[in-house]
Design a protein that fits this description.
Strand order of the largest sheet: 1-9-8-2-5-3-4
Shape: globular
Strand content: 15-25%
Distance between the termini: 35 Å
Structural class: alpha/beta
Number of strands: 9
Largest sheet: 7 strands, mixed
Number of domains: 2
Oligomer: single chain
Length: 320
């Protein structure tokens, strides 16, 4: 099977690549797991993944492009960019999807979590809210299990998809984590900023991802090296942290060879203060974002098959 060359259409915003019928598929998979368990779920899921890998040339090309970049940047990882490794990448995503569903159902076994809670407990003791910058590495939904595990944790997860309300209705029928709220945003307007500020002041956490440019802010980006090539990252987390006047943490959660999910919850910045001058502000945001991107790169290399951004991520020009 030949790998298609990435065209201008492949470089369109990731939001244009949402699959139709995903909600029906999710309902079906939830039903399969509920009635038959994990192995029958795999019976249905793996052929679907194979079909998706075969017919979705855009996602497949993006996966192979990513694997090729990891191979060039970190040859010691042992990854290759061939179709076999690409299919493994898709299968890793499928397993991740199953674990998401298990978390939503409230059936996730927290005994498979490995988590140094020192930073979290210190934050909870302070009563202070925080902004958490996560990613598409591993399984962000594990934080839903954390909300059940530690009842003081209240999470407000910002998502950039038109399907959010439908997903909320779907999850409300099965989800046991009542301490998690999904908030659909395309951009941070004053009303959203006030709402989030009030939540942080009440000691709640605001969660958003820092490795995908949101729909409503395609130009509010910084360009930074990631895996050796320039890529666009959103300014949003750092602009929002400036508005919320709260500490900023990173959250990474992925499965390791021991079969357990390892959670890394670390302070990124105490607080962010941005200058009013536009040029100086841009430079400051770039400096803050660089800290996050380096951390993302470090953890991504620990579990490279668990980074799930199936669209063309890098720019074509080199990095000085």
């Amino acid at each position: 099977m030949a790998t298609p060359e990435l065209t201008d259409n492949d470089r369109r915003h990731w939001a244009a690549m949402e699959e139709r019928g995903i909600l029906w598929g999710m309902r079906f998979l939830v039903a399969v797991y509920l009635f038959f368990g994990r192995w029958p779920f795999r019976f249905f899921l793996y052929p679907v993944v194979g079909y998706y890998f075969a017919v979705n040339s855009r996602a497949r090309a993006a996966s192979l492009d990513y694997l090729r970049q990891v191979q060039e940047f970190a040859p010691e990882s042992g990854l290759t960019s061939g179709l076999r490794q690409g299919y493994r990448h898709f299968l890793s995503f499928a397993e991740n999807l199953l674990d998401k569903i298990i978390v939503w159902l409230g059936r996730f076994d927290t005994r498979v979590l490995r988590f140094d809670k020192t930073e979290l407990y210190a934050l909870l003791e302070s009563g202070e809210g925080a902004l958490i910058v996560a990613s598409h590495l591993g399984n962000l939904e594990i934080c839903r299990a954390l909300a059940d595990f530690q009842q003081k944790v209240r999470l407000n997860i910002l998502v950039h998809t038109k399907h959010t309300e439908k997903f909320n209705r779907l999850l409300s029928s099965v989800d046991k984590a009542h301490h998690v709220t999904l908030i659909q945003v395309t951009e941070i307007n004053p009303a959203i900023a006030i709402q989030l500020f009030e939540k942080v002041q009440a000691g709640e956490f605001v969660v958003l991802v820092g490795d995908r440019v949101p729909v409503g802010s395609p130009r509010r980006t910084v360009t930074l090296p990631f895996m050796g090539k320039p890529a666009s990252f959103p300014q949003g987390p750092y602009l929002l942290a400036h508005l919320l006047k709260c500490p900023v943490y990173t959250l990474f959660c992925f499965r390791k060879g021991d079969g357990c999910y390892h959670i890394y919850f670390e302070k990124l910045l105490e607080k962010i203060r941005l200058p009013s001058d536009r040029l100086l502000r841009q430079q400051a945001v770039e400096r803050y974002a660089r800290h996050y991107v380096k951390r993302l790169e470090t953890y991504c290399l620990q579990a490279p098959l668990q980074w799930f951004n199936f669209y063309h991520f890098w720019q074509d020009d080199g990095v000085d």
